[in-house]
Amino acid sequence: MDDLLAALGLVLVLEGAFYALFPQGMINMMRRIPDIPPASLRLMGIVAVAIGWVIVKVVRN
Question: How many CA atoms lie within 13 A of 46 on its CB side?
C-alpha cells in the first residue's frame, strides 16, 4: 500500500509541475483533446499503461 501511495504522490508531483511550469501549454493541450479521435486516445492510454507497467517491472526486479 505504501508503494501505491508513493506512486500516486509522484504522479501528482509530475502533473502539478507541468501545470506550474507550462500553464498556457496545458490549456492549449486540453483544448485540442476533443479533436483527437477516441481510438487514438484509447491507443495512447494503452501505450502509457504498457510503458508504466514495464517501468514498474524493471524497477521492482
Answer: 6
Q: What is the pTM of this model?
A: 0.72
Q: Residue 48 is placed in which grid cell?
A: 502509457
Rounded Cα distance, 6 and 1, in Å:
9
Contact 19, 26 (CB under 8 A): yes
User: What are phi and psi for residue 37, nearest 5 degrees?
Assistant: -60, 145
For residue 48, the one-letter residue type is A
pLDDT, tens digit only, all 61 positions of the chain = 888 899 999 999 999 999 999 999 999 999 999 999 999 999 999 999 999 999 989 988 8
Place of cell 496545458: 26
